[in-house]
Amino acid sequence: MALFAPEKIKENFELLAQRIAVACERVGRSPDELRVIPVTKEFAPTAIEVAYANGYKQVGENKVQELVDKYEALKQDGAYADLELILIGHLQSNKARFLADYVSEFHALDSLRLAARLNRFMVEAGRVLPVYVQVNTSLEQSKYGLPVAETLDFIDECAAFSHLRVVGLMTLAMNSKNEEEVRQCFRTLRQLRDQAQLKYPTVRRLSMGMSGDFEIAIEEGATDIRVGQMIFGSRDIPNELAHFWPEDRAR
Ligand SMILES: *Cc1c(COP(=O)(O)O)cnc(C)c1O
Predict the structure, then answer these.
(1) CA nearest ligand 1 atom 14, residue
(2) Which atom from ligand 1 is nearest to the alpha carbon of 227?
(3) What is the pLDDT of residues 141-179, one digit of tens each?
(4) How far from 191 is each of 135, 148, 152, 211, 220, CA to CA, in Å?
(5) What percent of the chain has pLDDT over 70?
(6) Are the CB atoms for 29 and 80 separated by under 8 Å?
(7) Using only C-alpha atoms, what is the Rg of the chain?
(8) Span 102-116, mean pLDDT?
(9) Which of 16, 132, 201, 243 could form a disulfide with 107 if both were Cys (CB 3.0 to 4.6 A apart)?
(10) pLDDT score at 240
(11) How far apart are CA 98 and CA 103, in angstroms?
């Protein structure tokens, strides 16, 4: 894991802002509509400190245990009081209780069993958790995310959970060099969001786009991009081998 030096990370944030501006301009959007979630997974807590120093008070982590450990390491003695950790990766139901204490938003809700447990812990904590429903928009047999055809019914069922608020949808696009295939995944998510929004006006956000494809995601309407390697350095495990994509796509 090669975490870039703080000066280099600062430069990368600036470069990212420029690339976002150019992509927004192409489709007549304002960069103000867009939230960058720096993804600090697999990097030491220093990465979070550097993001914070650059003005990013929300960061994304994909594993709940790692998120909790970093939270504990950083938030001692009342430091980083306004830092928020967003869980962007899959969560097992038996770890749902951690979200009440450590997580400000959850971007990978994909089962009713998990939703029911999460809701129970949020009721106990007296907090409403903003959640994004993860959708499997690539036609691959991905492990995570709901099938497109089941997503609207799922959102209907989530309406019963008093302490979860579905604010948007999330996806990982196909891991492909073919830009049209990637774009189609983002388009599918946007169309689903448009349909869901007719019935539930609060379902507004689109969490899509990462280091390799955020410009396409912006062109297709992303409101939240989740960017790690482009900012902080490459991780040891390349995305195509990481567990969130199926093995048969590995190159
Ligand atoms: C790691 C990860 C990202 C960021 O990927 P990068 O290649 O580091 O930009 C985005 N979303 C999820 C769910 C991730 O796990």
Answers:
(1) 62
(2) 9
(3) 667 999 999 999 999 999 999 999 999 999 999 989 999
(4) 12, 10, 11, 23, 10
(5) 93
(6) no
(7) 17
(8) 98
(9) 132
(10) 63
(11) 8
User: Which has the closest alpha carbon to 88: 31, 40, 151, 153?
Assistant: 40
- Measure 126 CA to ligand 1 centroid, in angstroms: 30
State residue 160's pLDDT score.
Answer: 97
pLDDT of res. 246 = 45
What is the residue-averaged pLDDT of the chain? 94
Residue 124 pLDDT > 90: yes
* Annotated domain spans of the chain: 6-227
The DSSP string of 218-236 is HHTT-SEEEE-HHHH---S
- Two tokens at 83? 């830092």
- Burial (CB < 10 A; 0-12, 13-18, 19+), residue 247, is exposed
Q: Quick check: CB of 90 below 6 Å from ligand 1?
A: no
Report CA-CA distances (Å) from 35 to 22, 49, 123, 227. Answer: 15, 18, 28, 11
SS3 85: strand
